[in-house]
UniProtKB/TrEMBL annotation:
Entry-linked Pfam families: SprT-like
GO BP, sorted A to Z: response to stress
Name the record gives this protein: SprT family zinc-dependent metalloprotease
Record has Protease as a keyword: yes
Entry keywords, A to Z: Hydrolase, Metalloprotease, Protease
Keyword Disulfide bond: no
Source organism per UniProt: Azotobacter chroococcum
SMART domains: SprT (SM00731)
Gene Ontology MF terms in the entry: metallopeptidase activity
NCBIfam families on file: PRK04860.1
Length: 164
């Protein structure tokens, strides 16, 4: 676990405690997040998960904005309860008034999308080609059937795969 992330999490909690004059429970922190999300807060578990790859590629902004963003979620839920909206006025107030940061909902880090394999299914229509995801193809292998909306024929796997 990078010490800078832990230090920033603690600093954000300290700022919130001074601002709200209240002690807050510190979360468990993990760097096991993958994919397009930079961070995720789990208020019920008091857990923060961060994306190690996006941290490595965007250290300065990640520490300043992303860590504060996720901590603000936990602070908001601890102070105002589970009935609030995740990016509602309580969270926005914490971002702006406590941390002095813009209340941005999403990061703008460059994220490489992974290439996905699509399985080609066909029907009787002349242009009846349907690319299925691996998940949908797996459902077909387990017995699920899909019909063409035009000719109502069962879509059949052509045996072809395409990388997209």
């Amino acid at each position: 676990m990078p010490e800078l992330i832990l230090a920033r999490v603690d600093a954000c909690f300290c700022q919130a405690e001074v601002f709200f004059e209240r002690r807050l429970a510190r979360p468990q922190v993990s760097l096991q997040l993958r994919g397009q999300k930079a961070g995720v807060a789990y208020p019920r578990e008091n857990l923060l998960r961060f994306n190690a790859r996006l941290y490595e590629e965007n250290r300065e902004d990640f520490l300043r904005q992303t860590v504060a963003h996720e901590v603000a979620h936990l602070v908001a839920f601890q102070l105002f309860g589970m009935g609030i909206r995740p990016h509602g006025e309580e969270w926005q107030r914490i971002m702006q008034e406590v941390y002095g940061l813009p209340a941005k909902r999403c990061h703008d880090y460059a994220v490489q999308r992974r290439r996905a394999t699509h399985y080609l299914y066909r029907c009787q229509c002349p242009d009846g080609e349907f690319p299925f995801t691996a998940q949908r193809h797996s459902l077909v292998l387990r017995g699920r059937r899909y019909l063409c909306r035009r000719c109502r024929a069962v879509l059949e796997f052509s045996g072809e795969r395409r990388l997209q």
